[in-house]
Design brief:
There is one protein chain. By secondary structure, the protein is α+β, with helices and mostly antiparallel strands. It has one domain (2-177). 20% of the residues lie in helices and 57% in strands. Strands 1-4-5 form a 3-stranded mixed sheet. The protein has a two-stranded antiparallel sheet with strand order 2-3. It is elongated, with a radius of gyration of 25 Å.
């Protein structure tokens, strides 16, 4: 009887340890909020990893400068980042840098979508990349109204990229195309 009880207690401890490990991946998350605030937002907020006490699987940082698994702020850095300037795996902002980057003004990333988009695949008003689609497009494979590619250089596209000082990003010598 005593041995059965000890066995059950040991088994409960093992299961609790496994559950804690599954919730927090075996290490506690990191949380920080600066004392200095702008309105309700701290100047710096950091939330990385889970918080078993709160039942959070991922950290969500909200601050002027936010760093977290999910980050929301003026400057946001994280797996999913959204802010005026966003840097992350999935970045959403006015200016964004990420694997998947959606930027109202500028987007830079593996897949970039924005007014000015730069990436492996880029789409926007001015798109530059391996594959580019836009009103002005420059790259290896291009689709657009005015394009610069290995097989075609529209004078309007050449002038646009030269005006922006970005002609060096385009294939071939665009100066010869004028």
């Amino acid at each position: 009887m005593m041995q059965d009880r000890q066995h059950l207690e040991r088994r409960v401890r093992e299961l609790e340890a496994r559950l804690a490990h599954a919730r927090g991946f075996g290490r506690p998350g990191i949380r920080y909020r600066s004392d200095f605030t702008f309105g309700n937002l701290p100047l710096v907020a950091i939330a990385l990893g889970g918080d078993a006490a709160k039942g959070e699987f991922r950290g969500h940082a909200k601050g002027v400068i936010a760093i977290g698994d999910i980050a929301t702020g003026v400057v946001a850095i994280g797996g999913f980042a959204r802010g005026l300037v966003a840097l992350g795996g999935f970045a959403l902002g006015a200016v964004s840098f990420g694997g998947l980057s959606l930027g109202a003004l500028v987007a830079v990333g593996g897949l970039a979508i924005g007014s000015f988009a730069f990436g492996g695949a880029a789409a926007g008003h001015t798109a530059t990349g391996g594959a580019a689609a836009g009103y002005f497009a420059c790259g290896g494979a291009t689709v657009g109204v005015h394009v610069i590619s290995p097989v075609r250089s529209d004078p309007e596209a050449v002038a646009h990229y030269q005006e922006l000082g970005m002609d060096s990003f385009c294939p071939g010598d665009v100066r010869r195309s004028r």
